[in-house]
Design a protein that fits this description.
Helices cover about 65% and strands about 0% of the residues. It has about 500 residues and is mainly α.
């Protein structure tokens, strides 16, 4: 990072260069739009990744460029203006490599009609509608199923049934896993325009933009460099995953940004409620409860608990957490440390050799108890490592108050590095925090994560891709650590290594 003393007042050439870089990123967005128009999945993926890497290059150059300039209203307007334009252009585009949105649309209709989205899986609904359900349902369940089927048959428009949306839901055998706050937003989308993908993308993007605004307000409150708002505003991963793909993680990003802003303002009780809201959008913000438990104190923790109870109370039933339990038990994708731990345990538990050198995500025998034992062991080990990291972040002194965002990004980063599933849109929750405390290691982690789209038909990511994603992150995190220690020395704060 460049010291404020070394920054130069921006001149016309600087404004022109930043505008040129914004136009270059606009070319990347145009590439995303072109990729969305390609029907062939492999060609569309390659086209998207090509432009994404150009976007990473432009993003990094722009980030380096703004470090040498002080904050001015003109620079901020250019950054914010281009960020909005990118999103407006991407919202109407076809989905790139994603189909999660179809479950969002169906869940929204179910909730809007006062039904419980966790009660039945899409597969059960389709089977019951076709009269070939293999499950023995009770009379009451059949009545409920009949109501769901009627909803499914009702139209999106004059000539379209919601069934066509339900048939496109991925993993149809699993009931929905999405928490209540997300369900509420899905229902709003239905009320605005049923079954309309761009409407849902607009709502998700509005929450993402609101998160960026909250980060900007945090930067102002702390007297930090406001042009770092470029990090979430121009990040090519955020542009694709929300404005194009409509992932509901934008709601979790908003809740986390709200929690950080409240911590910065000293509103710890509201911060606890915001973390609870984040968990009601997506489970992973829950790690922040541990990270900030000393800051939140009893009132903040009670606010968290109250929000959670109020959120889940209308949806409680026998199957409310079935989808999430299935996800936690079975999902594996693009893992980092978890994969290494699992593949070390497998040969230790199998007497006649390894299941395959560095077995892939789906290169496994789910029925073999030794493999299942290795899987359980890997989750236990990585879970304990994660808990130790979170507790360390909760009690370790970090200089001054501005690194609340650093604690949050490190806590979430530790979760994802250790998790059995690492999707690019999960990592987006880290990005707004990096505007408050930039981390080269975590930026690499986020920016290179879309390379996982090179997965094969079985959703297995090549090992050399994982090496590109994860290995350079380690020395960059060491660099971040040295920067933090230097910052502690500069401000005279206590910092124990």
């Amino acid at each position: 990072m460049i010291n404020p003393e070394e920054q130069q007042q921006p001149g016309r050439k600087d404004f022109a260069l930043l505008t040129a870089l914004g136009l270059a990123m606009l070319y990347v967005v145009w590439g995303f739009i072109e990729a969305s128009r390609i029907d062939d999945v492999e060609i569309s993926r390659n086209e998207y990744l090509k432009f994404h890497m150009w976007g990473v290059f432009i993003f990094c150059i722009t980030f380096w460029f703004i470090q040498r300039l002080p904050d001015t209203k003109g620079l901020l307007l250019i950054i914010a203006g281009f960020g909005l334009v990118y999103r407006v252009l991407l919202i109407p585009t076809n989905l790139i490599l994603e189909d999660d949105v179809y479950r969002y649309l169906w869940d929204g209709k179910v909730v809007a009609h006062g039904l419980n989205p966790y009660q039945f899986s899409p597969e059960e609904l389709l089977a019951f509608a076709d009269g070939d359900s293999g499950k023995a349902f009770t009379g009451e369940q059949k009545q409920d199923l009949a109501r769901f089927v009627e909803l499914m048959k009702s139209g999106v428009g004059k000539h379209n049934e919601f069934r066509k949306i339900v048939e496109q839901i991925n993993y149809p055998e699993v009931p929905t896993i999405y928490p209540p706050f997300s369900q509420f937003v899905f229902a709003i989308s239905y009320f605005v325009r049923p079954g309309h993908v761009p409407t849902l993308k607009i709502l998700v993007t509005l929450f993402e933009v609101a998160a960026i605004v909250l980060v900007f307000l945090s930067l102002k409150e702390l007297g930090l460099k406001q042009t770092y708002i470029l990090i979430p505003a121009w990040c090519p991963v955020l542009l694709k995953e929300f404005a194009n793909s409509g992932h509901h993680d934008g709601l979790a990003i908003f809740a986390v940004a709200l929690a950080i802003f409240c911590l910065v303002k000293g509103r710890n009780t509201i911060a606890g409620a915001a973390i609870g809201l984040g968990v009601l959008a997506k489970v992973y913000p829950g790690v922040l409860l541990i990270v900030f438990v000393r800051r939140l104190k009893l009132k903040g923790c009670l606010a968290f608990a109250a929000i959670m109870i109020l959120g889940y109370l209308p949806f409680m039933g026998k199957r409310t957490f079935e989808g999430f339990n299935t996800y936690a038990k079975e999902w594996q994708y693009n893992a980092a440390i978890f994969l290494v731990v699992r593949d070390v345990l497998v040969p230790m538990l199998k007497e006649d050799g390894i299941f395959g050198a560095f077995i892939s995500d789906n290169g496994k025998d789910d029925s073999d108890p030794r493999y299942l034992a290795a899987l359980t062991g890997a989750k236990a080990i990585t879970g304990l490592i994660l808990l130790a990291c979170l507790l360390w972040l909760a009690v370790h002194p970090i200089p001054d108050r501005w690194p609340d965002a650093l604690r949050a990004s490190l806590g979430l980063g530790a979760l994802f590095i250790l998790a059995p599933v690492i999707n690019p849109w999960y990592l987006c929750v880290i990005v707004p925090m990096l505007a408050l405390y930039p981390s080269y290691g975590l930026l690499w982690f986020v920016l290179l994560s879309p390379l996982s789209y090179t997965r094969d038909i079985d959703y297995v990511v090549p090992h050399f891709i994982r090496c590109i994603e994860f290995l350079p992150m380690l020395p960059l995190l060491v660099l971040d650590y040295r920067t933090l220690k230097a910052s502690a020395a500069r401000y005279g704060s206590e910092f124990n290594s």
